[in-house]
Specification:
nucleotide-binding, 2 strands, transferase activity, mainly alpha, 4% strand, two-stranded antiparallel sheet, 95 residues
Length: 95
């Protein structure tokens, strides 16, 4: 894939970056070099390689998925003007 001058100007416009006509050829070369590198990555054999979360082997830390109320409902609603059973009471706004 190759990037032309029109595409460089469009990318700059979408990114809201002011690019002069003199800068377009340089940016075109930079973008083409990036795309060439990405194409090289697709040639790497990744058969049997597991995804990693770190460069050192480690197991992801997981917490149990337990539903709770945080056990601080009284503290949360303490400053509310009006509450009922640890819930905020708000005035009706829709008739």
């Amino acid at each position: 894939m190759s990037v032309d001058a029109t595409t460089v100007r469009r990318i700059a416009h979408l990114a809201r970056i002011a690019v002069s006509d003199a800068e377009v050829p340089h940016l075109q070369g930079e973008l083409n070099a990036m795309l060439a590198f990405v194409e090289q990555l697709s040639e790497v054999n990744i058969e049997g390689v597991e995804p990693m979360t770190s460069v050192t082997p480690m197991e992801m830390k997981k917490r149990t998925d337990a539903v709770n109320d945080g056990e601080i409902a009284e503290i949360i609603v303490r400053n509310a003007p009006d509450t009922v059973n640890d819930f905020f009471l708000v005035p009706k706004v829709v008739e």
